User: What shape does this take?
Amino acid sequence: MSSQNKELKNLLVINSSARNRNAKSRNLAETLIGHWQKIQLNTKIQHRELGNQSIPHITEEWISAAFKPIENRTQDELNALKKSDEYIKELKDADIIVVATPMYNWSIPSSLKAYIDQIVRINETWKYNPDNIQNPYIGLLTNKKVVLLLTRGSQGYEKGGYNEHIDFQTDYLKRVFHVIGIDEIYVITLDGAANNQEEYNKNITIAHQETIELIKSISS
Assistant: This one.
């Protein structure tokens, strides 16, 4: 899409690193945003900060409320879902969702997991299909794209790599977004932050170039 296109694009950028400075996943997100704005001028960018914010965990009251019709919820139950409603509205409004996250202990930060628990909500982002017991989830967030910007201190997490078996980050996030209806998912990884600096600098260059190329392909 050229910068002359007048169609407004809504970009939701979700950061989950606990670090503000020197966060590799944040740097990747900033690269994406910077180049996106050069290509697609007519863009609204919404930021959702998870890493240094308190993301509420689901509670018994939350669960009770989520499975009730809205007209049957008490005021306390409505309040319990308030943050969930806010997060879900951002997702529904977005055309493209960018999730920038490091790998912590071979998985995702706890803040991102708490966020996922808030957004994977029956009759809001998915509904149940009793006629297909093998695949009963019908995603409700369609016509969207997801970009996963994943950073890991070690390496070897790629398909067939020596650490693939302990990567509980990549496939989990892909599956979550698939369940809520998003199948167009792109993944960019930056590995090896804890290893040889020269090699890691090469990986940074590659990841940033992949990010730029991805922007060109999905901005149309």
User: Anything to note?
Assistant: The radius of gyration is 18 Å. The first helix runs from residue 24 to 39.
